[in-house]
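BUG: 3D viewer hangs when loading the predicted structure for this chain

Environment: internal workstation, default settings.
Expected: structure renders.
Actual: progress bar stalls at 90%.

Input used:
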Amino acid sequence: QVQLVESGGGLVQAGGSLRLSCAASGSIFRVQAMGWYRQAPGKQRRLVASITTGGSTNYADSVKGRFTISRDNAKNTVYLQMNSLKPEDTANYYCNKYPDVTSWGQGTQVTVSS
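Structure tokens produced before the viewer hung:
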């Protein structure tokens, strides 16, 4: 069982940046692809970015060129660097395994003001 704790969210103006972190417990992290997901009010949770154990990445079209996912296997942590933030990026952000998810953490709220 992997436990996930997200942090780093906050309130930022459009055009600003945030760096999210996700600490994962359990040795399974090192052999698991991971993803960042987000859920806006009234909308479905969607994948934002994913990263394999080898570091290959993929992004949703809406965040390509603005967001960067990375991981530190020694620290069991995955990151999401978010630049040029837009109001439509406002959501609760979660990390989880990819593509098969496990239990969700609390997430971290990102609010982008216009």
